[in-house]
Amino acid sequence: MTETPRPPVQPVPPLPVPPIPTAPLPAGKQPLPAPPPPPAAQATPRAAAPPPAVQATPRAAAPPPAVQATPRAAAPPPAAQATPRAAAPPPAVQATPRAAAPPPPPSNPGRAPGMPSLEELIRLAYDEGYSDVHLGVGEQPRMRDRGQMIILDYPEVDYNTFMSWLREILKEDEILKFKRELEFDGATQYEFARVRINVFDTLRGHALVLRLIPIKILTMEQLRLPIIFRDVSDAHKGLILVTGPTGSGKSTTMAAMVDYINKEHPKHIISIEDPVEFVHQSRRSLIKQREVGQNTHKFDNALKAALREDPDIILVGEMRDKETVNTALKAAQTGHLVMGTLHTNSAIKTIERILTLYTAEEQDAMRVAIAESLVAIIAQGLCRTTDGKRAAFHDILINTETVKDYIRQGKNDEIAELMKNGEYDGMITTNQSLFNLYQEGRITEETAMEMSPVPNELAMMLRGRV
């Protein structure tokens, strides 16, 4: 019974009422016949039109190219790569450090206003005859004038000024070595003088001491050294020791002795120094100078190698340890003349100092070795003279046969007495040397007493002319 409503479903045919849309066809103002076919036919062409539209769709597909254009817009990433190219400025940043490289040169202008260059200070010391220049952060510059420290009329040194001075005489790697080890030894040369350098660190900051070394080597006559120095320098083999405290003129005396040998004897001389102070030019002798750290890495290696370099004379900067003494004695015993230095105040103390490097069991053998090898021990000091200059006084031990016996037996007191009466052999004590300077009017009594190792003995000599 419900079927009755189903027939009404037949109104579906009315659904074709869509033909009603044909009513718009008249809106085209086209003849009615044409509109009906066109809708189907035109729909066909319109359907055909879609192919163009489909072509348009490919053209619409062109947007994908546009999308590719978007990747081209993505080309900005390449632009981003261009940005890294813009990142090329990092090289420019490297250029900045290169621009930063100038700071070392600007470091010289980095000196505080009114402060001189280091060369100007050294020139001042040279012109005035000063021996040392003392510079340090937080301190006024000072110089040593014939043993006395004097203060220069400059303000306290700041860090930048000090580093600018350091760069005048040291390379960057040497400055780095100093900062790493907090100590540095070296030397440099100016037209008017050679300079020994020592840089070190203190509680107040970095400090620097410069020792001026004349380019011209003074002769024995100019230094007014005793005649015995020539006889000692004429020796063909053995051990010569020049001793004294720091600043006592040991290097100057040894340079004069080497200069004498260079002028008088055809020898081969090898020096091993740390650093090289006086520079010698070969004359009758052939002179080869080696600096530790520059021409050899280790002092001991250079000394051992010297024995294989056909030397006649080996100049050792300092007898600093047991191994050096052993090698020097070996060289002296094998036909070479060895010259070295020690920081001792007298000839007898020099023997004692060498023996202290050895154990009690070794000392007897070392006394024998020293007795057989020794030529002379020259202990030296400097004192201020009445004319404001400085003069050297000496304590000289010559290894005569009697002295050899005393050394073997360890009779140091007897050696001291023998020195007092050994003028004929060229021996002299410190007190006798000071007394001679006093008699010549070159030093005052006060100076003689101040420098004397045994003031009571010297006082008796001054009063009684003994």
TrEMBL record:
Domain Bacterial type II secretion system protein E: 307-321
Coiled-coil intervals, chain numbering: none
Biased composition (Pro residues): 1-24
SUPFAM superfamilies: P-loop containing nucleoside triphosphate hydrolases (SSF52540)
InterPro entries noted in UniProt: P-loop_NTPase, PilT/PilU, T2SS/T4SS_dom, T4SS_GSP_E_ATPase
Location of region: Disordered: 1-115
GO molecular function, one term: ATP hydrolysis activity
NCBIfam families: pilT_fam
Family: Belongs to the GSP E family.
Protein name: Twitching motility protein
Lineage of origin: Bacteria, Bacillati, Cyanobacteriota, Cyanophyceae, Oscillatoriophycideae
